[in-house]
Amino acid sequence: MRETLPEVPTLGTLYASAAPRVLRKVTSVAPDALPDTEAYVEAVRCSREQLTAYQRLVGDTVREELPSVLLHGLGFPVALWLMSRKDFPLPLLGLVHLRNEVRQPRVVRPDETLAVSARAVGLTAHHAGTAVTIETRLFSEGELVWEGRSLYLAKGVRLEGVEAPPAPERAAFVPPSTTARWRLDGSTGRRFAAVLGDYNPIHLSALSAKVLGLKAPIAHGMYLAGRALAQCAPHGTGYAWSVDFATPVFLPGTVEVNRTSQPGGVVRFSGWNAKASKPHFAGEVTPL
Amino acid sequence: MASSPSPRRAVIIGGNRIPFARANGAYVGASNQDMMTAALDGLVARFGLQGERLGAVAAGAVLKHSRDFNLTRESVLGTALDPATPAYDVQMACATGLEAIGSLADKIKLGQIDSAIGGGVDTISDAPIALSDGARAGMLALGRARTLKDRLGAVASLRPRDLAPAAPGTNEPRTGLSMGEHQALTTQRWGITREAQDELAAASHQHLAAAYERGFFDDLVTPYRGLTRDNNLRADSTVEKLAKLKPAFGKNLGEQATMTAGNSTPLTDGASAVLLGSEEFAAQHSLPVLADFVDYELAAVDFVSGEEGLLMAPAYAVPRLLARNGLSLQDFDFYEIHEAFAGTVLSTLKAWEDPEFCSERLGLDAPLGSIDRSKLNVAGSSLAAGHPFAATGGRIVATLAKLLHEKGSGRGLISVCAAGGQGIVAILEAR
């Protein structure tokens, strides 16, 4: 069932509307608990100011292409609208961002008007809880120009009637060689929020993060992906990319980064914490 | 088909520099323009160029104030050269000085000009401090504002944190790694030992000190602000003393960290200049001819992807230059390999000896091979003298030209690495 929203919702309002349900304790969820709702916004545009601010933020060049992570950001409020509704079975605040998979068949120009469609497409059992997949698609005059699936984990929530898979055996992390180093200051989360509107309190300040049980604010996963893609993504062509998040990047903090070229123009990237020798994220970009 | 006439020669007549000074020391308060003018003044005085209209003066600085948009021209106007001497700035990171000299030599060879001065200058002590991007955005908006409301809005957009100044660093913009951190990766990749690096550093100090002792620099250096010698020079430097220093770069390598403040160049202030001309110009003005500027070559590598080390571009430039001139790596009497870090020199030498690198990366049938190390940096190099980025090319060209002239025969090879994964190499021949 399609619900057409008059405009892109404001993320702050969505988080605020979900806040009263922070205390709601969800322990299990039925496999068919996802609402069959497609959230839809007819016309979304990215302003020049927002595009430039984003490109500056992640160290990209100011050029006439909408970066793929910025396109994710344009569609994200529509997805979040779904996830903040009363009929969404998992608690929004506290969801852990696990993975993104994006396919963008062609370059999207800044002056294109985009329609956004978002749906929750599936619940899967995870060793630490239940994961939900949100699918977002962007259309330009009916042409699919961006589609992405985001996977979020609700920790400690059992998927009813499904046995949780065992935790995968993790080989000891062997850091690759450093090809770049990101020094992220304490305002990284606030600066990303100022550009993309994602004022999730876990990213903003020590205090707001502590309220939600974190020792310090953490970087937005999409900020990390955006910086990686600013270095690794091709220009003038479509591309597919994916990223898996392993452990959060606490702010302020330093991330060691590696990028490695593979045959076929594929670029793999990863980020890790050198002191703790723990991986933060890993992903790859494939030109289409 | 008519063959094009072979171009005439470009010769090196002489050089001059001010002593190089460790940053935030002897040259505090002196600007790039002050130091460049001092280096030019000394050169003009030495070769009697007062009132002379030269073909061109080209120089540059790596760290540059926006007010110095015409740094070289302004410096020329402060000298006794004819004010009708044109001048322009060159900027190619640490390759600036040699690129300026090489392109001037090309103009001379082509007959476009008869004489030129090339060089460079850098100061860390008087480095430009920029406003943060936030402050700049606010102030530029204020400049554009036409109404009181817009002006107030622009001022209100400024945040206290915007007022913190942004000092220039030696970090590569695309990787966030400093040059030393990049070199630490390359040094480890080539398995260069701490001992080998310290030996090279000690030799650099000993060679530079010996060159000063025998008066080699008497006609290459003009005293400035109380300095008569490079004040980074430690004539009593030894491998034992250097071995006591703690690692400064690549500390995350732990036990394998080998790069210290002793085997890395210090941040330095200084300026250098080299006088070039056609053979006719030298003869007409009764000037000496030290060496021919034979040829030069640029290269760049993909360090952003981690495919190659940041400072390895000269390893790629040299085989191309050798091939074009029909020479082998062993056909030289002097090698001047800029000591950005001892590890840079040793990694480059090892790469040229490595069959796999030479075949896969350089596309050669056989390795370039080893060099006779007794011919390397025989009058000291940057580890001892210091490295005011854009001034290093001029220091090396003048030093090598004089070494060749003293010997009276033979060739010298110059290799200089630069930020941005670039490199520049050149051949000089004795006269």
TrEMBL record, chain A:
Pfam families found in the cross-reference section: MaoC_dehydratas (PF01575)
Superkingdom to which the source organism belongs: Bacteria
An individual GO BP term: fatty acid biosynthetic process
Species assigned in the record: Galactobacter valiniphilus
PANTHER family in the cross-refs: (3R)-HYDROXYACYL-ACP DEHYDRATASE SUBUNIT HADB, 3-HYDROXYACYL-THIOESTER DEHYDRATASE HTDX-RELATED
Similarity-based family: Belongs to the enoyl-CoA hydratase/isomerase family.
Listed name of the protein: MaoC-like domain-containing protein
GO molecular function: fatty acid synthase activity
Cellular component terms (Gene Ontology): fatty acid synthase complex
SUPFAM superfamilies: Thioesterase/thiol ester dehydrase-isomerase
From TrEMBL, chain B:
Domain called Thiolase N-terminal: residue spans: 11-280
The enzyme's E.C. designation: 2.3.1.9
Gene3D superfamilies (alphabetical): 3.40.47.10
Superkingdom of this protein's organism: Bacteria
Residues of the active site: 94, 387, 417
Thiolase C-terminal domain location: 289-429
Keyword entries, A-Z: Acyltransferase, Transferase
A cellular component term, taken from the record's GO annotations: cytosol
Alphabetized CDD domains for the sequence: thiolase
Enzyme superclass (EC): transferase
Transmembrane annotation, as ranges: none
Pfam families assigned: Thiolase_C, Thiolase_N
GO molecular-function terms, A-Z: acetyl-CoA C-acetyltransferase activity
NCBIfam families according to UniProt: AcCoA-C-Actrans (TIGR01930), PRK09268.1 (NF006740)
PANTHER family cross-referenced by the UniProt entry: ACETYL-COA ACYLTRANSFERASE FADA2 (3-KETOACYL-COA THIOLASE) (BETA-KETOTHIOLASE)-RELATED
Family that this chain belongs to: Belongs to the thiolase-like superfamily. Thiolase family.
Protein name (database record): Acetyl-CoA C-acetyltransferase
Source species taxonomy: Bacteria, Bacillati, Actinomycetota, Actinomycetes, Micrococcales
